[in-house]
Amino acid sequence: MIVVDKGEFLSLAEVIKILEKEKELTPEQRAAMEHAKECTNLSVKDAKKLIGELRTLKLPDSTVYKIVDILPEDVETVISILSTQKSRIKEEIVKDILSITKKYLGE
């Protein structure tokens, strides 16, 4: 049985790792794992490293994890992710995010 703290954020890489430890998966868990594998190229180690780098930008954890899972390549995608925040989107933050995520693209 999988138990995760309520309110805890997980990257897709972490979801894959957790589900792969299970001996038997429900159909829903199997579908979640397949989806997670299709949507991320990051290892757990790289995902955690990226999370740490993004946290230095003082972004909410929900935003950090969206960025890690989506791994945006362009300004429009970053702005789309940040648009869920109530604060104004600063151009400098967008550039910083792209600078950080660029290191993890194509790995």
Per-chain topology:
Elements: H1 12-20, H2 27-39, H3 44-55, H4 61-70, H5 75-82, H6 91-102
Helix pairs in contact: 1-2, 3-4
Descriptive notes:
The structure is a single chain. With 107 residues, the chain is an all-alpha fold. The protein has a domain at 44-102: DNA polymerase, domain 1. It contains six helices and no strands. The chain has helices at residues 12-20, 27-39, 44-55, 61-70, 75-82, 91-102. Helix 1 (12-20) crosses helix 2 and helix 3 packs across helix 4. The longest helix has 13 residues, at 27-39. The radius of gyration is 15 Å and the shape is elongated.
Structural class: mainly alpha
Order of helices and strands: HHHHHH
CATH architectural grouping of the domain at 44-102: Orthogonal Bundle
Q: Which strand-content bin applies to the residues? A: under 5%
Q: Counting H and I runs of at least 4 residues, what is the number of helices?
A: 6
Helix fraction by DSSP (H/I, runs of at least 4) = 55-70%
**Major sheet characteristics:** none
> Roughly what is the average pLDDT, rounded to an integer?
90
Low-confidence parts: none
| Rg, Å, rounded | 15 Å
Q: What is the β-strand count?
A: 0
Structural shape: elongated
